[in-house]
Amino acid sequence: MDDLLQEFIAETRETLEALSGEIIAWELQPDDRARLDAIFRFVHTVKGSCGFLDLPRLARLSHAAEDVLAAVRAGDRKPDASLVSAVLAIVDRIGEIVEAIDAGVALPDNGEDLLIAALDAGAEAAAPVAQQAPTNQRVAQRSVRLSTELLDRMMSGMSDMVLARNELARRMRDHQGDPGIEAALDRLSLTVAEMRDTVTRTRMQKVDALFSALPRMVRDTAAEVGKSVQLVIEGADVELDREMIEMMRDPLVHIIRNSIDHGVETAEERRAAGKREVGRLVVSARQSGNQIIIEIADDGRGIDTDRLVQKLTASGQSRGRDLSALSERAKLDLIFEPGLSTKDEVTAISGRGVGMDVVRANIEQIGGRIELVNALGRGLRILIHVPLTLSIIPAIVIGIAGQRFAVTRQAIEEIVHIGGDAIRVDLLGDTATATVRDRRMPLVDLGALLGLCPAASGAVDMLAIISASGGSFAVAVDSVLDHEELVIKPAAPAVMATGIYAGQTLPDSGSPMLLLDCAGIAAEAGINFTRDAVVQDDESEEAAAPTVDALLFEDLDGRRRAVPLAIIDRVETVPADAARFTGGRMRLLVDGRIIPLAALGETAGRPELAVLRIADGDAEVAYAIAEPVDIVAVPTEITPSAQAGPILGVVTIADEQIELIDPQWLLGPDTGETVQPGAPLCLIDGEADNWIATFLKPVLEAAGYRVATKAEDSEQAAVILSTDAGASRDGRTLLLSNDRRDIGALDRVYRYDRAGLLAAVAKRVEAA
Question: How does strand 593-598 pair with strand 585-590?
């Protein structure tokens, strides 16, 4: 009987976890027969099991719920709000009794008569009953239940096996041995890798275990604050380490309750703002590489950053700083200030001073980070990035002062070598800063911080750019040694207490190694991104000249050229024999398709070709190059080419004359040009793509037209070029399309059809 009782308790727990969400969904869609049947089957099963196991209280409660649900199924009762609340209260009580049975403690039966009476038609809603926290994941198939301690021991043993395999592989590399032994090691390595993946998956659960309790919580919270909120859950099938799921529960609950209380407006406020009365809250999960992204998005009022500044200043937490001078990004991050609450009154949900700082600390504790995307008046998106598992993580091994350290790959934005003006180290007084492509950030001398060496007095050769909460900082490193999947375990308490280490590992080198805690390093170095506005270069304080992003590359003929980044789909390497002269021009066979291939130089004699895949609209072409160099900002002041052809014009980049490839030559039809002489004014609509305005200007100027981009010149313009299909048509407006089918159209022109474009401009000039 004990085994049957434990089986009943486990099965009931699993079903209860998802059942409250099913009831909420059924309330929103009363005609959903499938959900009603699922709820009915649950209470019916509980009733039947209770009779066999002699559990009269559970039998009485489930029998009452079954009767009312049977009436709903028969059409005799309507599933109104009071009925749903009463059923929820019964389900809650069943859960409490089951937990009490499992714990072997007595649970008073007072109040159960009221719960049953609330099921009657016309009865008042039952008082809410505290919901027992779910403990297991619901499974669709039969399974063997294992204790979490046993799973942890399995994972620990598997981790030790991985480390032993790594050590054996290292020793085999150091001492060339018998090929037969090496073959056996390869088989062992394959088996260990497969077993590691299998054991790791035993720790994985669907995020549904985290999301299943949300419908009930959203319903109750919204009712408590007098709001209507529709919850949408996406990606519940994504899997995550069960330990991560448990550690994410409290932060997720806090964020969602905040979204309902702070973010979503009341029905009256939403009507006044032109929104529908029912707020929308979307909770989703998706996998991105080796991390899981959980997103909570609402369509409420967003965060008023000016109000954040006022609240901090009024509370005396501004520490004498002028917070109004912060950037909008830095103001938004003030939401993470300890003790901050934007509520003026204390309620059960808000205003108690326990805020987003605790949420961020909990997320960073498991190696994650939190990101805010704010739209004032339209809502807030909160993105939580967490690793898939806490046990085995991808890491970069770096060398500092003769020592090796690991940094999680997720925390490293990039690793760069110092050189030129784009990447340099400067001293502002006694403080070292790093400038990486116009981004100035704090520089941490990690060797000195860890006490491995005195402060570096010589030149720094390499920087690792580290992403931390609220910003980035640079770390001077001596070398980058390896990229490994590492088994992470806690270090000694004295080591972990320093706050700058996240654990220890034993890589295949055989030497123990510490994992750095990037947030702890930032704190130890005194870096505070929230309080201080981002430091900009002196040059950037001046009004920056308008620019367009372009790819700088070495061309086949040895010259450096650039092409607008907006039309580059990707850069890839292809076999040289994929390029052939067929059908009167060079063509490239790629991805099972044949596309035109352009080049300024010889492709013969090369085993492989680097090609730019150029695409815009429905047009696509490949352009062969020697190698890409960098992404650069091209000034919009372009010196036009003396004649039409592949080169649009010339610009100055780093004191060097760089030729710009003409997008219209790449993507346009092979036709001649027809233009009218004279000097009328052409206005490029300011709403058009920035790069379109940049690269059309020299084309029009070379054809003898004056060009303007300011709206105040519209009265004098003979032609107005726009990419907005809804622009007003007064006979002067010429619509620029990115659809190749518009070649030869009467009211629009394909924007890469140079001849068609100039002919259409000339026609409108003549009409004007």
Answer: antiparallel
How many alpha carbons lie under 13 Å from residue 185 in its C-beta half-sphere?
A: 18
State the Cα–Cα distance between residues 553 and 559, nearest whole angstrom: 8
Nearest of 324, 335, 325 to residue 302 by alpha carbon: 335
The string of pLDDT tens digits covering residues 134-152 is 335 333 334 566 666 787 7
Residues 6 or more apart in contact with residue 122 via CB below 8 angstroms: none
| Element (DSSP H or E) covering residue 285 | strand 279-288
Q: Range with the lowest mean pLDDT among 63-72, 137-146, 507-516?
A: 137-146
Averaged pLDDT for residues 581-591:
81
Place of tokens 């010196």: 639
| pLDDT tier, 618 (very low <50, low <70, confident <90, very high otherwise) | low
pTM as predicted: 0.45
Residue linked to tokens 């960098």 = 630
| 398: nearest Cα among 466, 451, 477, 460 | 477
Q: Could you give the 3-state DSSP secondary structure of residue 221? A: helix
Of 280, 282, 281, 284, whose CA–CA distance to 235 is shortest? 284
Q: Please tell me the predicted confidence (pLDDT) of residue 282.
A: 93
pLDDT at 544: 46
Upper half-sphere CA count for residue 226 (Cβ side, 13 Å): 4
Rounded to whole angstroms, how far apart are CA atoms 348 and 224?
9
Residue 290: how many other CB atoms lie within 10 Å: 15
**Is the pLDDT confidence value at 359 over 70?**
yes
Q: What is the rounded average pLDDT of the residues 445-453? A: 84
Is residue 675's pLDDT more than 70? no
Report the 10 Å Cβ neighbour count for 249: 15
Give the separation between CA 654 and CA 637, rounded to whole angstroms.
Answer: 15
pLDDT, one tens digit per residue, over 395-445 is 888 888 888 898 887 788 888 888 766 787 876 545 677 888 767 788 888
Ordered strands of the 748-750 beta sheet = 706-708, 681-684, 719-722, 733-737, 748-750
Q: Angle formed by the axes of helices 148-174 and 179-202, to 10°? A: 160
Report the alpha-carbon distance of residue 7 to residue 17 in Å, rounded. Answer: 16
User: Count of residues for the chain?
Assistant: 768
Find where tokens 């559970």 sit: 58
Q: Output the six-digit token pair for 535.
A: 């430091």
Burial grade of 655 (CB within 10 A; 0-12, 13-18, 19 or more): exposed
H/E stretch holding 186: helix 179-202
